[in-house]
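INSTRUCTION: Work out how this chain folds

Token vocabulary: learned, describes local backbone geometry

RECORD BEGINS BELOW THIS LINE
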Amino acid sequence: MYNVDLHMHTLASTHAYSTVHDYIAAAVRNGLKLIAITDHGPEMVDAPHAFHFTNLRVLPRVVDGVGILRGIEANIKTNGSTDCSDKMRDSLDLIIAGFHKQVFAPADTVTNTDALIAVISSGKVHIISHPGNPEYPIDIPAVAAAAKACDVALEVNNASFVHSRKGSEANCRKIVAAMRDSGGMIALGTDSHSAFSVGDFSGCLHLLHEADFPEAQILNASPLRVLEFLEQRGGARITEIYTLLTGYGQATGR
């Protein structure tokens, strides 16, 4: 149903197991038209060096009919900043940011919420990863309101229903409802650490169906929507991918 996956990790994050080539091949097999390579920010214990992110420009923009976005899953820090420097950000298309206990230890609801809202309000991130993690309780209505006001998407993370962060479903259900009611955007991400799961959102889609979540508020509902979202947030037009997706959109009516 959704042919965009915005969250995946390669061998550069050494607890993951696939290469960029593996992800592209899997994307072709699974009918994906747009993917984002989003390895962990450099303050994660086994993350790539900052050079990894500034050098993503060596990757082609389109391979075998799949558009490739240059991204990062940055680590939220205790002062509400992230480990994605301005220099790194200048080389990237997509900035995801999330809590990881190797960088930000789980805290109380007020501390977690304040940090999350500070990151959202910074203007330097596009998506908040796995905000439903039960290890990091947050004031969901306040975070949803901030995300809507700042045009930041909150992720529904498929891995949280399959491999990681078990117990996330109740929080994710509340996040989906809050974003529906606020008019904000939801992003779907597989958080793949292996190419075998890329594009598979089957673990989390039931929450969107149960909430009757509007397609117009799902970032992944169209590959062109992602490009337009990034441009609206100040990103440069990615001509090669835009050309690919424009042809795709005309062919499918999207």
Remarks:
- Residues 169-182 form the longest helix (14 residues).
- The two ends are 13 Å apart (CA to CA).
- The chain has one domain: 4-252.
